[in-house]
Protein: LysR family transcriptional regulator
Organism: Cupriavidus lacunae
Amino acid sequence: MHTEHFDYNLLSVFDAMLRERSVTRAASQLGLTQSAMSHALNRLRDYFQDPLFVKTTRGMTPTIKAEALAETILEVMTAMRTRVLPQASFEPASMNRTFTLCMTDMGELVFLPPLMEKLRSVAPHCKLRTLQVPIPQIEALLASGDADLLLGSVQTAPESLFQQQLFMHGFVTIVSTRNKEVGDTLTQEQFESMPQVAVSLAGRSSPTYDSAFERHGLRRNIYLHTPHFLTIPLLMDREPQLIATVPEELANVFSRYGIVRVVKPPVTLPPYALSQYWHPRFHHDPAIVWLRQLVKQTFDTYPNIEA
């Protein structure tokens, strides 16, 4: 192999194919036509004398040689993004990029609207994409660049990730507006006897909830575990006897639609932090640094913002 004959722009083509496993999506990420992307991929194949990516039921899968090259090429691309490109001027107003955020459906409902509004005002050509993935997959997703930030409260976040606290969550209990048994307050007897909906994002109930209830000797009559926050008010509308304890910001959004109302739980639950998390590989990436700053600024005055 002769390096003087190699077009180093092809490294970005290899990198995009590793991320997207699709010629069409990789072309879109690089701003190329599909024809130009196919031509660049063929040049890579000719140079390395290997197909590099072959079509399978899971998309364009890397060959053994491509997998052997992947780590080195990713290191080169990371160095370019974090050490070389930051030296150039960075203008959010002219940036054209899609940022990918990992968050729950609660995050989409409560936190995404103000962030979208902020992004449109300072970086009108940028777009957002959201993902909801299991916690064990988060580190690899952030390391690969397939996701830029994780927004949420993660009790078991990988230690390798950087994090920054945004604000503290409080908790309240919500009941159906059709529930006539509960007044402005919820007694301990009502709380323990009424069937409850619990959100279990990781397949188990929240340790924040459990430890607080246990310290006060409270037992919950959990009727349903669900990984989705947004189903709760709809279920309560159909089954008015159900109650749920959720973050206060989410409860306030729900109550605007007239399906549920907010009451205080019989005990005071400790708040917990909502943070943003990112991978060390992209700690100095200028676009990700800017995105983190934007997120922090957006929620500096939370919850005193319109969601």
In short: The radius of gyration is 24 Å.
